[in-house]
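Reminder to self: keep the SMILES exactly as supplied, no canonicalising. Ligand is zinc ion.
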Amino acid sequence: MAQKIAAASARVGRMGGRPGGLPVRTAFHLWASLALPYIHGASALLSDKQIEILQKKVHRAVHSIIGKRADPAAVLCDLGLPDAKIIRDIRLASLFVRLQTLPEYLAPAALHRFLHVKATPDVKSIEGRMMLLLGRLGCGHLWQGINPPALTLAPGPTAARAQDRDPIGHRRSGLDKGIKRAAWNHHRRLLLEQEGDDSFLASYVGMFKQDLLRPRLDRCAAYLLSDITPSQQACLLLFRTGGSLLAHHTPDTYANFEDNRCHGCRTRHPSSQDVCENIPHALLVCVKEPYASLRTAFMRDMEETCASFRPRDDKGTLVKWSTLEPDLQSTIALGGMIPRDWQLAFYRPDRMQAGRDALRAELTAIAAPFLQAIARGLRTYKKAVLRSLAARDKDFVAVWELWGDLGQSFEEPSAGMTDRGQETGDEE
Ligand SMILES: [Zn+2]
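Structure tokens returned for the bound complex:
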């Protein structure tokens, strides 16, 4: 099965499913339809250890499509795709329903009914594992609440309603839906528990918690349905999941809090509170071009659009884009949900969520091209750093090349640059 997942991922790669190839949603849906059916087919009977191996294969496949830096769990979550563990949970719990709703005269059904009536099944048996799983998913009531099996598959003479014509099918589809919902909600709870942890996934969860709370976690996050270009979608996905070139995403960023800003920012903002080159830094402070010259336009456009909806927070105060917390500005710029306590003028209370979705869609569309400019600047900068490494004096050469790339902004520092930084630049 692991080999088949790898082979399917390689096929997607050949069809253009890699960074810079097919639109990212197309590539992943192609991959999901080629690779995941193998897991659907047999995962119910696999051990935890085997599922762990498959989970690693799934994550490696995600890396092969979107690049090694992105966090696979975050990528799958944004796209609304299941991983090996969710699929196993759904299949194992559904298998239980299948066995319990077989007609009485079939031997396996009789056998399982016999096992079922034992008060506490042996936890090592498959019935025991199913009972524990259903409990873990919050569906423990299904274990006891199952109806007696129908005596025959043939429709009765007076069957009018769907559940009378096909009682087994009706019962199964109802339970399958409930199990699927429970498994996704269980996955959501596990993700939310990451918060407060020191990992990249935790910072993703912290930033995009509202997206994780969407009613259907098995559908993609709203920004992937926005009216933006496929390359802008890919850019947003990379920034949100750690696949961009931001230093913030490197694994050791959290372990040792060394200064991860670019050379330009370190020299020009010696007193800046930022240490990590993360999204708020890149969006609000960083001197890298071409975005640094566009920042004023970005802030103005976001301010105007936000104001046109006249949002008020839970205290009734008018919300202004420019006074929001840097983290919230970053989340919204990256297509995150608008906070649920914002009340918009011109929308009835029952249409408020639709209004917030409309505001989110407009803000995402405005921010997307600016985020592409940040990504371009990061690429240019990293190339400059790379070139400097060969010359053995990386700081000097990198700053030199960065400021060569900065061009105009070196003469006309944008808001936030201090005179002191400017002087330091002249000395260099
Ligand atoms: Zn910077």
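Points to follow up:
The pocket of zinc ion is lined by residues 261-262, 264-265, 277, 286-288 (CB under 6 Å).
The longest strand covers residues 311-312.
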